[in-house]
Amino acid sequence: MTEPPFDYALALLAAIRDAGLSYPASCFVTGTIDGAAVPCLSAEQQVYFHQGYEPAERDLADMARLREAFGIRTHF
Length: 76
What we know:
By secondary structure, the chain is an alpha+beta fold. It contains 3 helices and 2 strands.
């Protein structure tokens, strides 16, 4: 017997619900990794999450990747 495929979208939504957080439906999008569709947060939502603190090197790298991939403006 094989296991059914893990539903990452449902797991993400359950984790958000369990944490008592709520986000607009528009922040959930579908991306691709190696041609496979995966649930993720929109680039705009990721930029929003990177506000209000002094960024570490990894945060600067994250924002650079978002600017390069999506042509969006970031605050650092």
